[in-house]
Amino acid sequence: MAVIEDTSKWADVCFRAVNGRDPNRDLGEAKTIYRDVDLDGVREKLEIRGTGNRLKQIYVFKLAESGYLYTGCLPAHPSFFVAKNMNDEVLILNVFSMGSGHIELQEIKYIDNEYKIVSVARAH
User: Which residues, other chains included, contact 18 with Cβ-Cβ below 8 Å and sequence gap of 6+?
Assistant: First the structure.
């Protein structure tokens, strides 16, 4: 894995590749937050790009010796929850909504160096 020194620029390049334009900072399309997404006691750096519930891209980085290591793109809304299940496994819980008629509770795990949705419960 390559060390990334400027995660903000890196995330902007990814956003541009996906959307064909730079993120509009005036509209809040670029944000950096820190959250402990693996419950190891060390907060990861999250570069959030985009707007809305479906259009956000959350790029996750772990602190390294001389910068950050990219760990993956988290398919969640920035207000996700982190918890452990009965097997002591870390789960990221995400409420996904496409309007009042379609709401999901998604369980996300970090498997094989990727954030994957492993189960979905739907409310109708």
Answer: 57
pTM for this predicted structure? 0.89
List, edge to edge, every strand of the sheet that includes 103-111. 81-84, 90-97, 103-111, 114-123
Burial of 19 (0-12, 13-18, 19+ CB in 10 A): middle
Chunk the chain into consecutive blocks of 10 residues (it has 124) and report each block's average pLDDT, rounded to whole numbers. Answer: 90 92 89 96 95 78 93 91 95 84 90 95 80
Distance spanning both ends of the chain, measured CA to CA: 42
